[in-house]
Each structure stands twice: as C-alpha cells, then as structure tokens.
Design brief:
The protein has about 220 residues and is α/β, with parallel strands linked by helices. It is built from 7 helices and 7 strands, in the order ααβαβαββαβαβαβ. α1 packs across α4 and α2 crosses α3.
Length: about 220
C-alpha cells in the first residue's frame, strides 16, 4: 500500500483529528522554538490536518504551505481554514514543488520517516531553504524509542527507523548544519497508577513513563548554510 492510499483511508475515517491531538503535546513546544519572523514562508511536510501552519500564522508568518502525500488529508486540512495565506498541496517529499532558496523554514511532525527516499528528501529540503533557513524534524518513530518499533507491524507503508546519529549524519550529508538535537518529552499524556497496568499496550507504568516522559519526540534541527 502507498502512503497516499494509507492516509486517504485515515482521512476518510476522520483520524486526522486524533493525530493532531496526540502530536500537539510535543509539537506545540517545538513550534514555539522555530525562529519565525513576520512574513516568513513556511513549509509543513506531512501536514495532516494543517494544525502547525494555523498555529504559526498566529505568529505572523506570511505564505504557509502544507504538503501531504494524501489528497484526502490535504482536502481535510484545507477545510479547517479560510486563511488565504495558507495553501495545501499533494506531493512527494523527494520532489518538492518549490523554487531553490524560496522557503524560510520547514517543519515536519511524525511524517519524515514515510519518505520514499529520506536522503533525497533532505537534499530537496536543503535546496528549497534560503541561506540560514531551518528544518525542524520531529519523529516519535526512531531507534532509541523501542516502544515505537512495533508501529511498523500496524501500518502497511514501509517506514525508515534511524537512530539519533543516523539523523545527524544524513542531515550533514545533505548539506545541512545540525544546530541541535534533543528529546522533547510529552508531559500532557496522562499516566495512570501502577495498579492499572497493563494499560494501552504498556506492561508497566515504568515503560509508559519512559515512552512519553523520557523518549518523547526526537527533534533534529538543520540549518542551511
């Protein structure tokens, strides 16, 4: 199954709202760190419901583009805003339909690992970013977060599972300077008392704490020279 088919199904089932709710726990503090200025152009890769661009528009960014591999996701995202400065389009991550040096910031939350060719995607991001532009790449599915490994069993699309160092190396290979990399904890997901475990697939409270409070979301920030 292709990314388009998988997420068209998700959109038809209304799952974009649940994705927004879950991702927002760590997306919010990450978005707050992006050094956007008034009038900046921002690209959101794997935009889902478009929540990130709606939030950044409140900070005064100019043109905002949300790209998704799913036509249904893009359609849903468009239905959630009447802002003429925000546009949604369908496309592949490894062939970005933007001019060289045309984007100030790129953001991607829980989507980068769906890229058909992640190295090519990073090269494309480097190409479209203006000098000094940033790429904020946030993923929950990565090697050190062992609780995420089973996700591949529940989705038909092949996902890329890199570790922290592989992300840094790939960014550098694409010509991006790695400005920072850290784990952003999810402090909003409620974790019940030990007496309620097993709970939501976690065998112990300790495992759930590790998943959300310790590993959380891996953030890698690249800067175009």
């Amino acid at each position: 199954m292709s990314v388009r088919e998988e997420f068209d199904t998700w959109a038809a089932e209304g799952r974009e709202q649940g994705m927004e709710e879950r991702h927002w726990h760590t997306a919010r503090p990450i978005l707050a760190r992006i050094p956007v200025e008034e009038g900046d152009t921002v690209l959101d890769l794997g935009t889902g419901s478009g929540y990130a661009l709606r939030a950044l528009r409140e900070r005064g960014i100019g043109a905002a583009y949300g790209l998704d591999g799913s036509p249904e996701m893009a359609r849903k995202a468009d239905s959630y805003t009447d802002d003429d400065a925000v546009g949604f389009l369908v496309g592949d991550f490894d062939h970005l339909p933007f001019a060289t040096d045309s984007i100030d910031h790129v953001f991607s939350m829980e989507a980068f690992y769906y890229a058909n060719d992640p190295h090519r995607t990073l090269e494309e991001i480097r190409r479209v970013l203006k000098p000094g532009g940033t790429f904020y790449c946030a993923v929950n599915y990565y090697e050190e977060n062992t609780a995420s490994h089973e996700w591949q069993e529940n989705i038909a699309v092949e996902m890329t599972r890199w570790d922290r160092e592989q992300y840094r190396e790939a960014f550098r290979d694409a010509g991006l300077h790695v400005a920072e990399q850290d784990n952003v904890p999810d402090r909003e997901t409620e974790i019940p008392d030990e007496s309620e475990f097993p709970y939501e697939g976690f065998g112990s409270r300790e495992a759930m704490v590790e998943r959300y409070r310790t590993w959380g979301t891996l953030l890698t920030v690249g800067v175009a020279p």
